[in-house]
Amino acid sequence: MSGAGLVLLHGRGSSARDIMALVPLLGAGGLKLAAPEAPGQSWWPTSFLAPMARMEAPLAAGLATVERAVEGLGLPRDRVAVLGFSQGACLALEYAARQGAGLGAVIGLSGGLVGTGDAPGEIHGHREKRMDYDTDLTGLRALVTCHEADPHIPLVRARISAEVLAGLGAEARFIAHPGPGHQPMPDGLAAAREILATL
């Protein structure tokens, strides 16, 4: 067993068992693993783009769950990565932006930051969000992926999320998959494997 660990966060309507199916594809079988499961199989009941008034309570509960999972691994934080898909990716990225200081890596497959508050402008029929984090993410390796035409995750939000993480000091990479879709892709999984191999 490696001295490194991985917290996996499933998507909406999915389960811990489902996200664990990615472990062989990530080459993460030797890592210490944790895969918490959301109540009712969803970290929050709506799009991550919903107004913050609707997001705050379930988001706080999700962030607390991730923190418990990270601590539960019993490893130095810089040897731990948090990876999520879809809604789980949004939670993983938001956890990193708010509480990721000292963490080894964050990987969001088809996801984007939730944000810290409502802001002027509109995105996919919702208010835009502020991204005014003050976390020092120096040393964090971050990966954000998204399809160019993802029905759930606006590409622009995913791209901005990588930029925000980089602005906080993370070594961030963004991968846009061509065309429509909403699933982990080979190039994203390969990039994730590279990150996890260096924990």
Strand and helix order: EHEHEHEEEEHEH
Structural class, by secondary structure, is alpha/beta
Instruction: Compute the number of helices.
Output: 5
Main sheet attributes: strand count, strand direction, barrel closure:
6 strands, parallel
Oligomeric state of shown chains: single chain
Write a structural description.
With 199 residues, the protein is α/β, with parallel strands linked by helices. Helices cover 32% and strands 25% of the residues. It has five helices and eight strands, in the order βαβαβαββββαβα. It has helices at 16-20, 52-72, 87-99, 155-167, 186-197; strands at residues 5-9, 32-34, 80-85, 105-109, 117-123, 126-130, 141-149, 171-180. The strands form two sheets. Strands 2-1-3-4-7-8 form a six-stranded parallel β-sheet, sandwiched between helices. Helix 3 (87-99) links the parallel strand 3 and strand 4 (105-109). Helix 2 (52-72) packs across helix 3 (87-99). The longest helix is centred in the first third of the chain and has 21 residues, at 52-72.
